[in-house]
Design a protein that fits this description.
It is a single chain. This protein has 13 helices and 9 strands. By secondary structure, it is of the alpha/beta class. The chain has a 9-stranded parallel sheet with strand order 1-9-8-7-6-5-4-3-2, with helices on both faces. Helix 5 runs parallel beside helix 6, helix 6 packs parallel to helix 8 and helix 8 packs parallel to helix 9. The protein is globular, with a radius of gyration of 19 Å.
Length: about 280
């Protein structure tokens, strides 16, 4: 079910031209809603998919189960899809290559690959040579398939709070990001960074485009674009917001009322129409 080659080139163009707001879906319904809003491409969220299926994030769902969900989402929309493949579901470069081949077969035109060891390493993150080898394996897998996969290298320095202060975090992120770009990544993703001035310094120091995440403390995508980010991802935010709304409806239901459900109601006819094409 590999995506058409035009989808790969279109997604590559969207990232290169910049100012890309990328929503992250966790099922077919959320993907269809994002597509209906006119957004030009969609990504998956590993956290959102895991929570919807009763698992914690960080590779608890597993490769095969995650690839099935990615394939279902890819089939549900006629837009370029980037797959969150977490840390590749294995420590070795060969594990990453296997996962990339699976993501391509599922219909993805891009992937996110983390340098987070998720507790399987002696240290929080893969060291730079190891992660660079894993990214190189991802690139080789795509090249062997003859497909221009967009590889987004996630750097988890900020998420893990590494370094003694923000200057050390910035230096570590720049070193990792540029090494990952040299190894075959197309873009560097730095979730957890919430300071626009630091983001601008980071964007200027990287040898490739920067992806940042929507965060509650950031007013909107424009702040990140102005700082030099080429892409802003919604990440797991929409799924968590949906969970917050369901929690409120649950509390109201316990009292025998449903004002939040009424306020946010999506009509049955609308839902049927949303899925009429597929």
């Amino acid at each position: 079910m590999a995506a058409a080659i035009q989808q790969f080139h279109h997604f590559r163009q969207l990232n290169r031209q910049g100012r890309l707001l990328l929503p992250n879906a966790w099922d077919c319904a959320s993907a269809r809603l994002f597509a209906a809003a006119g957004l030009p491409a969609i990504a998956t969220t590993s956290g959102g998919i895991a929570y919807a299926r009763g698992c914690r994030d960080a590779q608890h769902l597993g490769r095969e189960a995650m690839l099935r969900e990615i394939a279902a989402i890819a089939q549900s929309v006629d837009l370029p899809l980037s797959a969150d493949i977490e840390a590749g579901y294995g420590l070795a470069p060969e594990d990453v290559a296997l996962t990339v081949r699976g993501a391509l077969a599922a219909g993805a035109v891009g992937v996110n690959l983390e340098d987070n060891g998720h507790g399987l390493l002696a240290q929080p993150l893969f060291d730079i040579p190891a992660q660079s080898a894993r990214l190189a394996a991802a690139r080789r897998a795509a090249e062997q398939a003859g497909l221009p996969l967009w590889i987004n290298a996630r750097v988890d320095v900020w998420l893990q709070g590494l370094g003694g202060d923000e200057e050390e975090r910035l230096a570590q992120t720049v070193a990792r990001g540029n090494a990952y770009l040299a190894a075959g990544a197309d873009m560097v993703f730095v979730p957890g960074l919430a300071d626009a001035a630091l983001a601008a310094r980071l964007a200027a120091a990287l040898n490739g485009p920067l992806n940042l995440m929507a965060l509650p403390g950031v007013a909107g995508a424009e702040a990140w674009f102005a700082a030099g980010a080429s892409r802003v991802s919604l990440g797991v935010g929409p799924m968590l917001a949906s969970m917050g709304l369901v929690r409120e409806m649950a509390r109201e239901a316990a009292q025998g009322v449903w004002p939040s459900m009424a306020a946010h109601f999506y009509g049955f006819a609308e839902a049927e129409a949303l899925f009429a094409a597929g």
